[in-house]
Amino acid sequence: MVSPPTIRTRRARWVVLVAASSLCIGSVVAAPASAEPVYPDITDGLVHHFELNETSGTVVANTGTAGAGADGILVNPDRAARGADGIRFNPDDYADALSGAYVRLPDDLTAGMQAVTVDYDIWIDPANVGEHQIWSLGNKTSCDVAGGQQGQLFSSNTQRLRVAAGTVNVQQNRVRLPEGVWKHVTYTQSPNANGTTWTGTLFVDGVQQAQSATITTAPSVNAAGTNCNFLGRSQVPGNYSFRGTLSDFRVYDRSLSGAEVVARAAQGNDEGAEADAAAIDLGLTSAVVEDIELPKLGTVAGSAITWESSDPSVVEVVTPPSATSARKVPILGVITRPALGADDATAILTATLRKGSESVAVREMTITVPAEFDEAHSVDRDALDLELHSTDNVRGNIELPNQGRWGSTIVWESSSEYVSSSGEVTRPAYGHPEVEATLTATLAKGGAEVQKNFDVVIKPLPREEENERYFLGYFKGEGMADGEQIMFATSNGNNALDWTGLTGGWPSLVSQLGDQGLRDPHIVRSPDGDTFYMIATDLNWYDQGGYAINDTQYIEVFESNDLVNWTPQRHVKVAPDDAGNAFAPESLWVEEIGAYAVFWAQSLWNDPVNRTGQGNAQMWYNTTRDFQTFSEPKVWQNPAPQSRIDTTAIKVGDEYYRVTKNEAGNAGSDIFSEKNADFLDSDINAWELVAPALGRTTWQSTAGYEGPVIFEANAGDTACPGQFYLWGDRYTNGGGYQAACEANIEAQTWQAKTITMTNAGVPRPRHGTVLPITLREWNSIRGIPNEDVATTVDIAVDDVRADQDAEVTATVAAEDGFEVGGEVRFTAGDWSETVYLEDGTASVTIPARLPEGEQSVKAEFLGFDILLESEAEASFQVLPAVAASVAVTDRCVAGRVLLVVTATNDDERKVSLLIETPFGAKPVGALASGKTHAAVFTTRAASIPSGTLTVAVAAGDGSDRVQSVYTVDYGAMSCS
């Protein structure tokens, strides 16, 4: 959330701000004055005065002559922030006119007035969007329903700053109040000589912006008075509620003179210019080594800034031409550095700031320009500039530069096998812990060398799940006030033809940078699956007056790990300086280079200084691993003198297929497909033409198509199973996106399908992206709780000999059939070990020497993430270390019992025996595998009681010698 800087007309605050900033990088020079300026208030005719500075409650005090009986009421106060600088309406989210915060003003606010002045301070939130009204006075049969309007007087900043008096708009076409800065606005309406019409004049910072002398709606709006009077709310319930701050709102029952309007704005202009001067930040001015981009406007109050240099041989100010076509070209401070070994040079940059017609502030900043770097300085500066992004959340390959801006060679080393010295990342498996590593950069130039370490945290892989739903990012179109912002929708079931908008057609993301428009959003999922990068065109056709005025080399970048929470917008320059635009950017993961290719349409100016003579449209590209650092742009498709734009791409097997628009003009434009095994091949003749006219052969032969989307249907898709989808934006004859399916990616004509959109704001979305997603992702996006997943454990263990380790494997399965990860704890007796699952299984070795006989082992899956705990237990036999069979029989000789012990070697090894009985012991030196030895023991008795004997069976020698003792019970024996 962007908060307005403190700027209200309280001079002490300004002085503190100016003084504090002056200590940093320069000084603010005010015009000489003998004393503090005096700003007399204008109170003559001030009927309603709402300072809007209450810090609590819902009453908005009226300190004008109308008094407390005409106080206002803050409605929906939980959606407002109150403070000494005004009421901040809807700082956190969007709302319609009824549910958002607004002030209800008293009825009949301007009753009986033949002239009126409305005067206030305003800070418009950069997130403000859509049809809205800043203030409005109306007469309606019911304020909270559409229709029934009997007259209205209101102001808005939609498309342009305007005041509407009945059917007349007082406006200067396409001039809007700048957002994120404080402005003073005044509207006066005075009767003309004929007594039946009025002249309305609109001022910003005391300077006239627009005027109309043909107004037929009186300041009183309606003879019956007004019953729907608001601050921050529209007369139309379905409009947006205003987002921004209003302060010091005044209504006079007369038209202030031009001099009075200037006087009303004077204090804010003076203090605003000083605050803008104090807020200028040129960075490290004590060591400037590259050209500086100098601001044109103040960041607090929007003052216009011009620049001069005391020494152009050190810092030359290069101001772009005043032509409208070049208005986006920045002012540059071009640096000339002293030669190696020379003294540092200095120059004073002077910024002159003007706000309104009379307020001027001056800021002087000393710029120190070091001499050309020697080797040591070059290395130190490259080390200072070297940075890596998101090092605590690594989820893909890392961009590791090998060359510094100042000529250093950079060599990298890694402390971990999980990240290579060239930045390729191998992530731990799902369910495994994150890995910490250190990347060490050694920067060297000549004999100078320095090292810089970066600690990184490599996150484990996400859970693999099957895609069962779809996600759509799109924009609505340039014909509506909120149409060029990003909207989201999700499929209804596993069907890429049936959709519901997430926010009822309201934007999910609003641009606050560049042109403050977001068109053509494209979303790419990382190859590991848990990072989403969204890029969009920096263009606001509706507010800026059409695409032809676009002159930006930037794209807008957002990043997410869940398609719900997005990083703040990044305004990223990708196109070269002489490009007139960077339209419809898309990206694709290119496995062969381990990075993303980012590609866009652009034209190059024939005259890059004045920004005139736009050439043919081409496709250019660069590469990136993180959408933070991009390679230098390169030509990808240049069909000169023809034009191409809007490429989308998909890889099928070993081939890359791209679908592109040929810019033949209106209905002659169509989309066509090509293929190549080398995605970055810039020889357009090396690409094989597959289908030359996909749009007009698939949908309507007389229409033009652009903005293609191509993607593979999910398994189980109910509309086009086992096929590919192709969407094309029919920008002529209306219609928006048209859809088609085909099993053959190389089909010349596809099967047309119908897209159904609900709560999307338009019947058909415009140029965007369809992204296959999992059911759990779909639930999270829609705000549906995801249930945890039950698991089961299956144990596999075989019987073992007492001298052998027992191998145990646990297989864990999830109830939903998708990937499992985490730890399994094995327990057998007093032994325990915990191991991680690998591909759904965990194996351990129970050490040998377990007691012979039946044993049990338990495997406990400890649960992980969404996976619930489970366990299982299994039994196994621990067999003797040496395998043998022992039998006991008896026979009688001469009336005496003979005990016969038979031992068989069941082992694979040769064994020795020691047979011990109550009647003696007999050793057997060697018994081959499979052989049997019988030993006879004479008892010398006619009968013997039951008893026990043992046979010790040994195998191996030395430390490898093992022995098993077989104990055999025998019954009583008798020869009688």
The number of strands is 66
Distance between the termini: 108 Å
Q: Total number of helical segments?
A: 6
Main pleated-sheet profile: 8 strands, antiparallel
| Share in helix | under 10%
| Oligomeric state of shown chains | single chain
How much of the polypeptide forms β-strand, as a percent range? 35-45%
Broad structural category: mainly beta
Unreliable sequence segments: 9-25
Overall outline: elongated
Name the average pLDDT: 93
Structural features, described:
- The protein is mainly β and 976 residues long.
- The protein is elongated.
- The termini are far apart.
- 7% of the residues lie in helices and 43% in strands.
- About 2% of the residues have low confidence.
- Helix 1 runs parallel beside helix 2.
- It contains six helices and 66 strands.
- Strands 2, 5, 6, 8, 13, 14, 15 and 17 form an eight-stranded antiparallel beta sheet that branches. It has an eight-stranded antiparallel beta sheet with strand order 3-4-7-16-9-10-11-12, with no helix packed on it.
